[in-house]
Queue: 2 jobs
Job 1
Amino acid sequence: MAAPPRSVVILGGGTAGWMTANLLHRRWSEHGTTVTLIESKDIGIIGVGEGSTPQLKAFFDEIGVAETEWMPRCNATYKAGIEFEGWSDRPGFERYFHPFGTEVDLFTQPKFFFATQARRTGRDIPAHPDSFFLAARIAREGRAPISPPNFPFSVSYGYHFDAHLIGAFLRELGTGRGIQHIDARIESVELDDSGNIAALIADDGRRFEGDFFVDASGFRATVIEGALGVAHRSFAENLFNDRAVVAPTPHGTGPIQACTRATAKSAGWIWHIPLTNRIGNGYVYSSRYIDDEDAAAELREHLGLPADAEVRHLRMRCGRIDRSWAKNCLAVGLAQGFLEPLEATALHIVLATVRAFLEAWEKDGSEPFNDKIARRYEGIRDYLVCHYRTAQRRDTEYWRDATRMDRLSESLKGLITAWFTGADLRQEVMRQGIAGYYGPMSWHCMLAGYGNFPDEAMLKPPGPDIPPIDMAQVERFVSGCAMNFPSHCDALDRLGEGA
Ligand SMILES: Cc1cc2nc3c(=O)[nH]c(=O)nc-3n(C[C@H](O)[C@H](O)[C@H](O)COP(=O)(O)OP(=O)(O)OC[C@H]3O[C@@H](n4cnc5c(N)ncnc54)[C@H](O)[C@@H]3O)c2cc1C
C-alpha cells in the first residue's frame, strides 16, 4: 500500500475543489497529510450546478455531516428524481419521471419490465413508468422521499441546493477541520525534470509546493491541460448542447415538489430546480440551432418574465480529458470533464473519481483508474445521448437532427437494438456490464417514458400467452406506500428545527 503524500495542493474552490479537499483531508489527515486549497476570489466559481444524484448524500455521509447541519444553510430541498416534460408528443407520453430507486421497486419493477416487453412486442398493456414507481408518486403528491421510521424499505434520494452556499459551507467545514485556504491567482505551473508538478506560482510571486496536486480549476483546466498537456476529447459530435442561459424566479403558490423538471424546448431543454427560497432555471441549448438572444427570449417567455429581465449566459464544453490522473495530478469537476446537466451527474462523478482515486492510490495505480473513469464518462454520455435519440418530437430542426443522429457507440446501438427487437433489455444492460452507470430501471423508464412502442392502433389485446397486469393492484400498492411519506414542506421545516 502506497503511503499518502505529505502535502496535497488543490487549485480551485468551486464545489468540486471543496468536496475533494474534504474527502482527502478526511482520509489522509491522520497520516499527517496537509491539504491546502488555493482559489482566486477574482475569478470566482461557475455558480450553477444545483441538482444532485443520491451520491451527494453518500458524500455528506462519508464526511460525517448531517442534513440538519448543511441543508438549511444551503437552502436545500429533497429530490426524488427528474420529470421530463415535452420530450414526446405521443399521446399519454407527454411526460415521465426518472425516479431514484427505492426497495419498494423490487415489487413493482418486474411488472413494469414485463409490461414494457409486452407492449414493445405489440400487446396493449399499460407501460408508462410513472404508475410503477414510488419516487414518481412521492414527488407528484408534494411529499419528501424521506422514509418514516416505521417504513421497512430504504429510499434513495438526492438534493437541490444553492451552488454558492454549498461551497461556502464546505469551505467553513474544511477550514474548521484543518484544511488551509489561500486566496491567490495562479499564473504559472512549475514542472520538475521528470515532468511532475513542483509548484504553482501566483501572480504576486508566491510559490506553492506540494507532493500531489488536484486540478479543480473549472473549465480553465489550468494544470491538467494547461501545464501537463493532457488532451481533451470533445463529445460535441453526439451531444449538441454547448450553451446555457439562466435566470432565477420566486416560488409560486403550490407546494415545492421534490424533483427537478426538464422541459424540452425548441433547441434544447429548460431546467427547473426548486430551492427553499427560489427556483433555479436554465435553458441548455445548442448554438448551432439558436442564438443567445433568442434562447434568452425563449427562457423569459417560458418563465413569464418581462422581455428585459436579467439573465446570465454560460458556455459549456462537453467532453472529458484523456486521463484524469496524470503525473502527480488528479483532475476533478469541470477541469476533468463535463456532460451536459440533463441528469445532474457532475458532482456524482466528483465523488466517484475521488473514491476510485483513493482506492487506486492504495492498490493498482493510475492506468486502471483512468480507464475506469473514462468508461464512467462514456457510460453516462450514452444515457444522455439516448434521451435525444429516442425522444419523440420532430417539430424543429434541432429535434429532427437529434432524433436521427447516428453517431452512437456500439454499446448504445446494442441497447437500442435490444429494445426495438423485443429482446430482454435488462439482460443486455447486465451483459454489457454498464449497470453501474445507469441500471435497467433507468433505461426502461426512458425508452418507455417517451413512448417508444408500436402505434396504439397496431396493439393487440393481451391473451392467454401474455396475461394483463392488474393495474389497480399496482396503484393501491404504490399509493399505499406513498401515504407513509411526509409532505416535502414538513420535512424541510423539520430540518430547520434541527430535528
Ligand atoms: C449550465 C450548467 C448546469 C449545471 N448543472 C449541474 C447540476 O444540476 N448538477 C451537477 O452536479 N452539476 C451541474 N453542473 C456542473 C457544476 O456546475 C460543476 O460540476 C460544479 O459547480 C463544480 O464546478 P468546479 O468546482 O469544477 O468549477 P468552478 O465552480 O468553475 O470552480 C473553479 C475554481 O477554480 C478557481 N480557479 C480557476 N483558475 C484559477 C487560477 N488561475 N488561480 C486561482 N484559482 C483559479 C476559481 O476561482 C474557482 O474557485 C452544471 C454546469 C453547467 C455549466
Job 2
Amino acid sequence: MAELSCDVLVVGGGNAALTAALAAREQGAAVVVLERAPVEERGGNSRFTAGAMRVVYNGLDDLVKLMPDLTDEEKRTSDFGVYTSDQYFDDLARVTQDRANPDMAELLITRSFDTLLWLRGKGIRFMPMYGRQAFKVDGKMKFWGGLTVEAYGGGPGLIEMLHKSAEKNGVQVLYGARAQALVADESGVRGVRVRQGRRSFDVAAKAVVLACGGFESNAEWRTRYLGPGWDLAKVRGTRFNTGDGIRMALEIGAMPYGNWSGCHAVAWDRNAPEFGDLAVGDNFQKHSYPFGLMINAKGERFVDEGADFRNYTYAKYGRAILEQPGQFCWQVFDSKVVHLLRDEYRIRQVTKAKADTLEELASKLEGVDGAAFLKTIAAYNRAVRQEIPFNPAVKDGRRADGLPVPRANWANTLDKPPYEAYAVTCGLTFTFGGLKIDNDGRVIDTEGEPIRGLYAAGELVGGLFYFNYPGGTGLMSGSVFGKIAGTSAGKAAAVTA
Ligand SMILES: Cc1cc2nc3c(=O)[nH]c(=O)nc-3n(C[C@H](O)[C@H](O)[C@H](O)COP(=O)(O)OP(=O)(O)OC[C@H]3O[C@@H](n4cnc5c(N)ncnc54)[C@H](O)[C@@H]3O)c2cc1C
C-alpha cells in the first residue's frame, strides 16, 4: 500500500524538477517533489551554477521584458546586441557537430524566451551577466558569446527563488528522500519506491516526472560509459546525481538515447575536492585560458586555447586535460592579460605559481618539463602575429602561425612579468547520455512508444548535447523541458482523475 499519494510526483530537486513542479501545479495537480539531498544540500547541480541562461532575444525590448529592473544607465552603457534563434541553432549545431536532435533543438530554442518570461511570472528574477560575459569596449559594456542573462543571485539564488515559488504554490517537498524504483504495471507508471532514512515506502502518483540528473557522480558508470580514466575526474557539482533516474527508467523498458560516452567537463582546480563545495560554487573552474596558454607535463601545448569564445570550447577541454599525462596542465598568463582573468582566479583555494622570469616560472610549474616549457614559449612568442590588434570581445583573428598546435585568436606573447600560472585538472559537470523523450516530455520505450505516466527533463534526457555544449544551455533546457514535462504530466493526471 502506498503511504502517500499525489497527482504528479517529481523526482529531483534542481532547476528542471522545480520548474516541472510549478508547471504541473499550474494544471491544478497536487504535486510532491522527492529530493534525495538533505535540505542544506538541496538544489542539485543547478545550485552550483552561475545561473547563466542562453536565451533568444531580438533586442533591448526583449531584455527589458525579462529584466524590468534594468536602469536607464545600464541601457545607455551596455551593448547587449541580439541573440537570434538562427544564431542559437547555428551555435548548437556547430558545437554538437550537427548531432543535436532537431525536434529538441527547436523546442529548446523557440521556447527559451517564453519559458523565462513564464518563470519571471512565477517570481524568478534575472539580470545581465556583466561580470563574466561582457568587456568594456569604447566606453560600453559589450556582451559576447550569446550569453547575456543570469538568474538573480546565480545558482543559489535560482534555487532559492524556485523553492519560494514552489512553496507559495503549494508544492510539497520531501528531503533526504531517494527514489529507488518506479512502481509500474502493464498500464504504466503508478508511483515510486522511496527510501528516506531507514524507511522504504511507496508514493502513488498518476504521473511521474524524472528530473534527477545524470550519472556524473557515479565513478563506476563514468568508467563504464565515458571510458577508462573518467573515474579519476573531479565532480564539479552535487554528489547525489548517480544515474538513479536513468537506471529506474531503463529497468522498465525505457530507451537509452544520446551521447552516452560524452559529457561536459572543464578546467578545474587541480586540488579541488572530489565533489563540488557549495561554499566555493563554480569558482574552482578556470575559464580564462583563451588569453593565455595551457601547458602539459611534457611542457607542450595540446589545444588551441583561442579556437572560439570560451563558451564554445570550455565544455570539451576538460576531456582534453584528462587525456594529458597525470591528468593536469598549467594555465600560464603574463601581466598584459592578468586584468582580464575572471574572478575565479582570485579565490583563496587556488593552485597558483607566480614568478618574475620565465625561467623561475619553469622551476615552479610542478610536474612540468621546464626546459621543454621554455622552448614552447619561445616558439610561441615568435609565432604571434602582433600586428593584428587584440580584442577580447570579438574573435579578433590575432593568431600564431606555424605551430604544431594552432592558435586562432587572442594570441599574446608571454614576455611581460610577473607571470602567473594555475594548475588545473578535469572537472566533470554532467553527462550527456540518458533517456529519450518526445515533444510532450514523455519517456519513450525501446519499442518507440511512450511509457504511460512517465515524463522526464533536465540532465537525464539524452539527445541534445554531443561532444560539446554551448554555455548556459543546461539550465535553459532544464527550464524548457521541465515546463513541458510538468505541463504534460499535470494534464495527464487531470484526465486520469
Ligand atoms: C559548477 C557548475 C556550474 C554550472 N554552470 C552552469 C551555468 O551557469 N549555466 C547553465 O546553464 N548550466 C550550468 N551548469 C550545468 C547545470 O548545472 C545543469 O545542466 C543543470 O543544473 C541540470 O539541472 P537538473 O535539474 O537536470 O539537475 P540537478 O540540478 O543536478 O538536479 C538533480 C536533482 O536530483 C536529485 N536526485 C538525484 N538522485 C535522486 C533520487 N534517486 N531521488 C530523488 N532525488 C534525486 C539531486 O539531489 C538534485 O536535487 C553548471 C554545472 C555545474 C556543476
